[in-house]
């Protein structure tokens, strides 16, 4: 790649923002949700986060050295940390250490650096890492912890247990991993529906709550608030979040009206999975999303509809990651056909 | 007199820190007569004036130094009386940047007799009036110094006259102060321009944050009570004062690509130009001085100064208390589209609207660029509705065939995209660098198309010639093969032709 | 699983056959193809590619008998456009092909011109005005910088200058 020609900016006014500042704002917006998540599901996410950050930075540094590029600008722009943070939210909390490390490494190397580094990648790096790990390690990836207040074994197992499992793959007191982990509400719903149970039968029990899964409701609510903060600060625009949510909720609402016993409510779809995280934090990744406002609406709507389709008829309980990757492939053509009219042109 | 409501905002643009209070707290002051004036004969990107004085000549204040010459030139005058001591070719900063111009160096003597007022300086016919404006040296005072008489005379009749009092760029406040102090003169100038352009309405655009200027102008317009003049407050967004943006927000129309507002019947003039025109018509005084905003935190007392054309910028800086830090960066213009000045040894020209002295701490440090993260903030900020990130991609990767379609020529180089870019990419500089390459490419394409046509016609011509030669040869053979009388006639004609040719080689047979 | 593999294999073969047949049977517009290639060339007929004009070069490119980097006036832009059109890799312009360029124009030194008319006959776009025994001059607006007029001039009175504007 030829070196970038140095041209000084013509305006004698400092730029209004910078990439590290944008990334830092995104991370700050995730902090309240992180605290709520830790309250409900334990410290696992923090451990995963630290491992993922370390692995992401190490992977980025290694590939940059191999590509003969400068380390400092790329490592300090914060994009690797944001990728790691999104992975931490997407991955289950109780994992052996190599799994978040692998996910982060794959996200950075395959999802970003091999395409040419930040700004040049086609696919959302966090989703690339997540999907590879999801398909390769299906057993580990469906082991979620029950939330605090559900009175199930595994709820609130403590920091030491998380740490022990992460680095030794064994829980203290010889607890079996199967005994403490549960499926997610989305998972249970899908399994139950496949077994011809009605939603009323499925969605009772300690893992469920009024609107979504217990614990998930509040976590996602704080994620949504963080997303609204990003909107307020102008870091993201409303087009993608609104389109994703409408794309998810309109079919959900329609089918819920048709048969409320077999199609979960829109509220459930909104609060039970990664819909809000996807709408505000994942789909809004500027590098891999459409760049025109009309294009953003199409892109977001596609993600919403695909997520609903995969959740309802596909093979996985949560379809967001696949939906994002699928829409990433159509971004170039969306951009091409939604170019705005230039001033003075017909 | 109604306010034009609602004004349609133009897309894009930025709210920038105005930094205008620095220079608006003091009234306009006048620069003390400088010892030397350096008056360029060309003050804009166009033909220079024809020099009308020689070394050693004495000139009075207001005497022409350069007369109107080629189409597109404007006269220049002696801003103070004195003696011509030298002619110099040196770089000056005007309009689009630094360029070399012939300059007349005048040493002032302080006599400065008032300009003689004749009753014939404002003639009766339109053509004569336009010539008088050119001879009075009046050019656009908004920063480009485009000859006013050419703009006014470009079309027989205009629909709308827009007076640009927006002054949207930070730091510049000369138009604001002029509107506060001479609103009547500006309105008078507007009426003269309406008369010259035959426009049916005059919209005076003023940004909302200039509350005092708005008030004064509205009062002056109310006093005149001409229904054609409407004062229009604009939202304070940069670059509201751009010609194309004014047309969009005031008239809800767009200037077609590659054309000027004059092509759609709209003429835009700066309010300073209107004031200069009014002064000429009423007093007979040509353009001898202009108000320059001398400002910036690098100066001790920033203010607006009425400076004679040709005054050294160093004199302006001294008048304002001098530089706090001698290492301050000097800029001519505002801090968005202004040009850096290598030193203060440059003359004030008709295009010098503002000098900003940026202290070292405020000067933009050239930060390393990061890769583009496709955030799209640049597209949101672009007043021309371009996609700067796509333009950057095309310009940097030499995909010049895309640049026309992406609208490179429509970029007004306002700098908004540079300011919002989180990766600190020098977008506008890249576009500025790509424009000559694109123009060259378009030129090459035109040449190639014309060349292909000419080649085809040449081939056709050669074939035709060959066919005609063949036909002549055949006819000749036939004639020679016929009876002896025809053969004799043909041979005699050929001999006669050859004889004539030998006797008069230059005759075209 | 065997059924799936078999279906995919059959589909692949069928589709490939369809593509091959369509290439054979659908009308092949050679003229239009040459047009498209020629449009990418500068068309100043300088002959520095070794062919007698831009069209012969375009035909050779279509046949695959010519390299894509033989056109100096076209420069990198033409090489890249040809590479895209013909599906090959772009290369640097071959330096031995000459220096014809649209950025230069020929100028005749009138003090040396003997009116022999050889340059006018050599110009592929008729940009030289003049008849035998009379002064010749280059019409700068039509000159394409192809350099074909320089070799025939017996008194070497033609020089190349950069084009302005």
What attributes characterize this protein structure?
heterotrimer, B: 509 residues, Rossmann fold, Fumarate Reductase Iron-sulfur Protein, Chain B, domain 2, four-stranded antiparallel beta sheet, 15 helices, C: 165 residues, mainly alpha, 3-methyladenine DNA Glycosylase II, Chain A, domain 3, Alpha-Beta Plaits, 2 domains, two-stranded antiparallel sheet, 8% strand, elongated
Overview of this protein structure:
- The complex is a heterotrimer of chains A (346), B (509) and C (165).
- Chain A has helices at 19-41, 44-66, 71-75, 79-90, 98-109, 125-136, 138-141, 159-168, 177-180, 185-194, 199-202, 216-233, 239-258, 266-272, 275-282, 293-313, 320-337.
- Chain A has 346 residues and is mainly α.
- Chain A has a domain at 18-182.
- The radius of gyration of chain A is 21 Å and the shape is globular.
- Chain B folds into 2 domains: 21-111 and 122-295, NADH-ubiquinone oxidoreductase 51kDa subunit (Rossmann fold); 367-509, Fumarate Reductase Iron-sulfur Protein, Chain B, domain 2 (Orthogonal Bundle).
- Chain B is globular.
- By secondary structure, chain B is α/β, with parallel strands linked by helices.
- In chain B, α4 (174-181) crosses α6, α5 (183-197) crosses α8 (271-283) and α11 (388-396) packs antiparallel against α12.
- Chain C has 165 residues and is mainly alpha-helical.
- Chain C has 2 domains: 2-97, Electron transport complex subunit B, putative Fe-S cluster (3-methyladenine DNA Glycosylase II, Chain A, domain 3, Orthogonal Bundle), CATH 1.10.15; 103-165, 2-Layer Sandwich (Alpha-Beta Plaits).
- Helix content of chain C is 38%, strand content 8%.
- Chain C contains 5 helices and 4 strands; from the N terminus they run ααααβαβββ.
- Chain C has helices at residues 2-25, 30-40, 54-63, 75-86, 118-122; strands at 104-108, 128-129, 137-138, 158-162.
- In chain C, α2 (30-40) crosses α3 (54-63).
- Chain C starts with a helix and ends with a strand.
- The mean pLDDT of chain C is 84.
- At the A-B interface, α1 of A face α13 and α14 of B.
């Amino acid at each position: 790649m030829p070196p970038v020609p140095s041209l000084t900016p013509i305006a004698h006014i400092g730029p209004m923002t910078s990439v590290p500042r944008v990334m830092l704002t995104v991370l700050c917006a995730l902090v309240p949700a992180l605290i709520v998540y830790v309250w409900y599901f334990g410290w696992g996410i923090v451990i995963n986060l630290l491992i993922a950050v370390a692995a992401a930075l190490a992977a980025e540094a290694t590939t940059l050295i191999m590509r003969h590029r400068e380390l400092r600008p790329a490592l300090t722009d914060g994009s690797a940390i944001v990728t790691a943070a999104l992975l931490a939210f997407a991955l289950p909390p109780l994992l052996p250490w190599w799994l978040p490390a692998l996910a982060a490494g794959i996200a950075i190397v395959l999802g970003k650096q091999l395409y040419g580094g930040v700004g040049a990648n086609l696919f959302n790096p966090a989703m690339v890492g997540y999907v590879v790990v999801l398909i390769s390690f299906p057993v580990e990836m469906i082991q979620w912890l029950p939330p605090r207040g559900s009175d199930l074994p595994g709820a609130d197992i403590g920091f030491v247990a998380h740490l022990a499992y992460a680095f030794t793959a064994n829980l203290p007191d010889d607890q079996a991993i199967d005994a403490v982990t549960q499926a997610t509400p989305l998972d249970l719903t899908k399994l139950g529906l496949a077994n011809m149970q009605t939603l009323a039968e499925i969605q009772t029990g300690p893992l469920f709550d009024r609107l979504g899964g217990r614990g998930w409701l509040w976590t996602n609510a704080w994620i949504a608030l963080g997303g609204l903060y990003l909107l307020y600060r102008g870091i993201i625009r409303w087009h993608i979040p609104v389109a994703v949510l409408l794309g998810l909720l309109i079919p959900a609402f329609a089918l819920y009206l048709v048969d409320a016993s077999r199609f979960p409510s829109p509220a459930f779809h909104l609060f039970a999975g990664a819909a809000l995280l996807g709408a505000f934090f994942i789909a809004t990744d500027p590098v891999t999303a459409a760049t025109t406002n009309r294009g953003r609406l199409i892109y977001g709507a596609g993600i919403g509809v695909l997520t609903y389709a995969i959740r309802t008829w596909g093979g996985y309980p949560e379809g967001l990651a696949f939906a994002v990757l699928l829409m990433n492939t159509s971004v170039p053509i969306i951009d091409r056909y939604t170019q705005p009219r230039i001033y003075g042109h017909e | 007199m109604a306010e034009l409501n609602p004004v349609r905002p133009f897309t894009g643009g930025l709210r920038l820190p105005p930094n205008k209070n620095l220079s608006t707290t003091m009234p306009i002051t006048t620069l003390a007569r400088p010892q030397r004036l350096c008056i360029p004969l060309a003050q804009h990107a166009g033909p220079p004036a024809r020099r009308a004085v020689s070394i050693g000549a004495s000139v009075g204040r207001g005497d022409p130094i350069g007369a109107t010459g080629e189409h597109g030139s404007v006269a220049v005058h002696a801003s103070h009386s004195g003696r011509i001591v030298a002619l110099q070719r040196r770089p000056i900063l005007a309009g689009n940047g630094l360029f070399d111009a012939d300059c007349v160096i005048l040493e002032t003597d302080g006599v400065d007799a008032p300009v003689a007022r004749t009753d014939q300086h404002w003639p009766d016919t339109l053509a004569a009036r336009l010539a008088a404006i050119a001879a009075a040296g009046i050019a656009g005072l908004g920063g480009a110094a485009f000859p006013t008489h050419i703009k006014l005379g470009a079309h027989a009749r205009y629909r709308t006259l827009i007076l640009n009092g927006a002054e949207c760029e930070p730091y510049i406040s000369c138009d604001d102060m002029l509107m506060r102090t001479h609103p009547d003169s500006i309105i008078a100038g507007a009426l003269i321009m309406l008369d010259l352009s035959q426009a049916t309405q005059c919209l005076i655009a003023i940004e909302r944050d200039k509350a005092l200027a708005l008030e004064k102008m509205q009062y002056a317009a109310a006093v005149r009570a001409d229904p054609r003049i409407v004062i229009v407050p604009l939202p304070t967004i940069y670059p509201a004062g751009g010609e194309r943006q004014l047309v969009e927000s005031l008239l809800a129309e767009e200037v077609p690509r590659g054309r000027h507002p004059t092509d759609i019947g709209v003429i835009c003039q700066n309010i300073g130009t209107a004031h200069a025109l009014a002064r000429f018509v009423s007093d007979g005084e040509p353009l001898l001085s202009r108000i320059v905003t001398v400002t910036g935190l690098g100066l001790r007392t920033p203010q607006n100064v009425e400076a004679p054309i040709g005054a050294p910028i160093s004199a302006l800086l001294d008048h304002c208390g001098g530089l706090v830090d001698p290492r301050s960066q000097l800029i001519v213009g505002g801090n968005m589209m202004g040009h850096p000045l290598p030193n203060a040894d440059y003359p004030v020209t008709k295009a010098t609207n503002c000098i900003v002295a940026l202290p070292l701490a405020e000067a933009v440090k050239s930060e390393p660029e990061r890769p583009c993260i496709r955030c799209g903030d640049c597209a949101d900020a672009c007043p021309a509705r371009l996609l700067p990130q796509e333009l950057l991609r095309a310009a940097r990767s030499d995909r010049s065939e895309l640049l026309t379609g992406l609208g490179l020529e429509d970029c007004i180089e306002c700098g908004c995209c540079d300011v919002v870019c989180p990766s600190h990419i020098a977008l506008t500089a890249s576009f500025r660098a790509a424009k000559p390459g694109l123009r060259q490419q378009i030129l090459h394409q035109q040449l190639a198309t014309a060349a292909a046509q000419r080649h085809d016609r040449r081939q056709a011509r050669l074939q035709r010639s060959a066919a005609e030669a063949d036909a002549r040869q055949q006819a000749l053979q036939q004639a020679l093969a016929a009876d002896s009388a025809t053969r004799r006639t043909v041979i005699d004609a050929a001999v006669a032709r050859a004889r004539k040719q030998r006797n008069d080689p230059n005759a075209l047979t | 699983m065997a059924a799936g593999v078999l279906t995919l294999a059959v589909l692949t073969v069928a589709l490939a056959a369809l593509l091959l047949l369509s290439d054979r049977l659908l009308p092949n517009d050679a003229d239009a193809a040459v047009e498209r290639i020629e449009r990418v060339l500068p068309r100043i007929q300088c002959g520095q590619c070794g062919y007698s004009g831009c069209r012969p070069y375009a035909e050779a490119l279509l046949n695959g008998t010519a390299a894509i980097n033989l056109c100096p006036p076209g420069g990198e832009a033409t090489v890249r456009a040809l590479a895209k059109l013909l599906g090959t890799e772009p290369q640097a312009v071959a330096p031995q092909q000459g220096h014809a360029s649209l950025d230069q124009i020929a100028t005749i030194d009138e003090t040396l011109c003997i009116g022999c008319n050889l340059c006018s006959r050599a110009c592929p776009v008729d940009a030289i005005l003049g008849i035998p025994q009379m002064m010749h001059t280059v019409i700068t607006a039509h000159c394409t910088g192809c350099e074909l007029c320089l070799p025939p001039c017996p008194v070497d009175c033609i020089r190349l200058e950069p084009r302005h504007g």
